[in-house]
Amino acid sequence: MAKNRKYKNSGYFLTYSVLMMFIFGCASMRTPEGGPRDTTPPKVLKMEPKNFTTNFSAKKIFIDFDEYIKLQNEFKEFSVSPELETPAQLKYKLRRLEITLPDTLEKNTTYTLNFGKAITDINEGNILKNFTYVFSTGPTLDSLSISGNVRDAITLDPVLDATVLIFPLERDSLFGKKKASIFTSTDSSGNFKLNNLKKDKYKVYAIKENNGDRIYQQENDQLAFIKEPVTLNSNIDSIKLLLFKEKANNFRVTDRKINSDGSIFLAFNQQLNKPEITVTEPSNIDGNKLLQFTKNKDSVKFWLKDLSFDSVKIAIKDQGKLLESVKLTRGKRDTYTRNIAAADNLQSGKLKPSTPLKLTFNLPVENIDMSKVLLLEDSIPRNGFTLKKDSADLLSYVMEYPWKKQEKYILNIKPDAITGIFNSKNKEIIKSFTLADASDYSTLSLNIKVPDTSKNYIVEVVDEKKNLIYAESVNKNKIITLTNFKTGIYFARIIYDDNKNGKWDTGNLKTGLQPEKIWYEPKELSIRANWKREEIINIPK
Fold first, then answer.
1. Among candidate residues 103, 165, 113, the one with its CA nearest the CA of residue 135
2. How far apart are CA 520 and CA 154, in angstroms?
3. Sign of the CA dihedral 127, 128, 130, 136?
4. Residue finishing a domain among 173, 205, 239
5. Are residues 408 and 354 in the same domain?
6. Looking at the structure, do residues 118 and 234 belong to the same domain, yes or no?
7. What is the pLDDT of residue 6?
8. CB-based contacts of 228-232 (< 8 A; 24+ apart in sequence)
9. 311 and 423 inside one domain
10. Which of 224, 303, 323, 480 has its CA at 20 to 30 Å from residue 461's CA atom?
């Protein structure tokens, strides 16, 4: 028995030893955890030949980095200026990048190899942005530069990672198939600089693009440009570019669908002025349609009371001119879900003083049974309120009542109180709120001084995030008084409305038209609670 117990214990010991060796062996192979994430792009340690070499005659360039690298999108990102007839070849291994050059280099020429965003580290993908290698096949290097700044045309905020491109005048090809070989990206302040340029005339552009091919695609990209070519005889450091989205040259419906509630949605690639929607087939269902355009008139949602059609043809017009006709098809077995719900204009459960309660429904309303609409004031049912359709909004109703401060209100709309299009009904709708304290709000008075009464200006008030709060067109000196403004920081923004159409207009590259200018009053319009602030806004010429 002792002998058997000895063998048994030995077996346990052996099993235990193997198990512990396996556990610690596996543990020893694990990568240490923790520590800060690497956010640093690769650093150049050595270049052969050295950067900015003159009388260059090498066939290959070797660049060593401080960590393992890889190339991404090198066919899009990498370029040589001036262009080579035979492309350079890029290879990378571990920490080394090897560039093989063709035998067709011109004499006495400065070449710039621009890697864009092609070089990253292998683990975290940190990008070495705007890295360039420069050499000259002659005794001197081109040494001129162009620098400047790119900002958004509306917000005037600096634009990060906009691509600034310049083309020698004889090969301006922003719309062409050839990518710009002289380019760089803007930093977080919107600044850029292009170095080692030769004397020449250049066209200057900036684009904010989606696909990174450095070819302007009007449908998706933003654009900035200098109308006239710049003559580079000495360094230029004052280029100012305003980035904007062009209005599409040709109208197009970008989205069309029949929604789950039976409404039809159309989106356009342009803002329209006086849009019209007409059902041309079957024409007999056009008369009872209900339309709701967005504020910018770049999309529409509408309802047809007769959905018995298999397909419907819709004509889109603007100012009486036919733009496009589209066709939508529905299945005979398609079903739709229609429950009436209501959004409101409450802010964190509070109703702004001197403001009616506004309810915006998801479907057009045909009838409201007021016997099923209950308003409680501090738990006591009240009469004397009205609920009327908003004449300016197809989907909205406004509720008027002499609201009292410090009282708690509950609006209870019972099930089936509201009948909408297609005989749709509501489930119970409950809105709980109080009247906001008037002392939490303030008045902002702007004394507007215009420089030229023959011109038009749009005065806008925006919040800290540049969201529009108020707008009014003026062409003479005027005091604009805005009441019930919530405590916060606001700014005055002025649009120079050159064509006097009451809105900001974008630019156009083909005609050389820049976007309408915008100016921000530099003073912050900070507003404290229960306070009236008066400011003079002197609009500059």
1. 113
2. 10
3. negative
4. 239
5. yes
6. yes
7. 42
8. 229/169, 229/201, 229/202, 229/203, 229/204, 230/146, 230/201, 230/202, 230/204, 231/201, 232/144, 232/146, 232/197, 232/198, 232/199, 232/200, 232/201, 232/202
9. no
10. 224
Of 277, 303, 329, which marks where a domain is finished? Answer: 329
pLDDT given at position 15: 47
What's the number of domains the chain is made of?
4
Amino acid 59 reads K
Q: Which of 470, 475, 476, 461 is nearest to 520 (CA)?
A: 461
What is the distance between the alpha carbons of residues 220 and 78, in angstroms, rounded to a whole number? 23
Q: Quote the pLDDT of residue 249.
A: 85
pLDDT tens digits, 260-311: 999 999 999 999 999 999 999 999 999 889 999 999 899 999 999 988 899 9
Q: Tell me whether residue 268 is exposed, middle or buried, using C-beta atoms within 10 angstroms of its C-beta: 0 to 12, 13 to 18, 19 or more.
A: buried
The answer for 461, left when phi > 0, alpha when psi is -120 to 50, beta otherwise, is: beta
Cα torsion 434, 438, 441, 445: sign: positive
Q: Domain containing 375: what range?
A: 339-436
Beta strand pairing call for 230-232 and 200-208: antiparallel
- Whether the CB-CB separation of 183 and 174 falls below 8 Å is answered with no
* CA angle (507, 509, 513) in 5-degree steps: 45
| Secondary structure class of 439 (helix, strand, coil) | helix
Domain with residue 270: its CATH number is 2.60.40
284 and 157 both lie in a single domain: no
Residue 404 host element (H or E): none
